[in-house]
């Protein structure tokens, strides 16, 4: 599944600690292979059409929108912060 990243995602990604950046990259590889890969714990955002949450680790999440066959990643960071964005 093709992955695209917004400017906001890239900006937030650069602010993350290097250890979390590595986890994000690993999870993106899983996402490319399988939208519902178990460690992603893919979850639809309530009340938002085609918006999804993907787990990086216990504290960090990515959110993105599914457009056709492409996932557009919009934000990454601490769980509560990402869900507010």
Number of strands: 5
Q: Would you identify the regions where 5 or more consecutive residues have pLDDT less than 50?
A: none
Strand residue percentage: 25-35%
Largest sheet: 5 strands, mixed
Radius of gyration: 11 Å
User: Globular, elongated, flat, extended or rod-shaped: what is the shape?
Assistant: globular
Write a concise keyword list for the protein shown above.
85 residues; alpha+beta; 3 helices; 5 strands; 32% strand
Short structural summary:
This protein has 85 residues and is of the alpha+beta class. The protein has helices spanning 7-15, 18-33, 79-84; strands at 3-5, 43-44, 51-55, 60-67, 70-78. Strand 2 and strand 3 form a beta hairpin.
Any chance you could write out the topology, listing elements then pairs?
Elements: E1 3-5, H1 7-15, H2 18-33, E2 43-44, E3 51-55, E4 60-67, E5 70-78, H3 79-84
Parallel strand pairs: 1-5
Antiparallel strand pairs: 2-3, 3-4, 4-5
How would you explain this protein's 3D organization?
The mean pLDDT is 94. The chain is globular and about 30 Å long. Strands 1-5-4-3-2 form a five-stranded mixed beta sheet. Strand 3 (51-55) and strand 4 (60-67) form a beta hairpin. It has helices spanning 7-15, 18-33, 79-84; strands at residues 3-5, 43-44, 51-55, 60-67, 70-78. It has 85 residues and is α+β, with helices and mostly antiparallel strands.
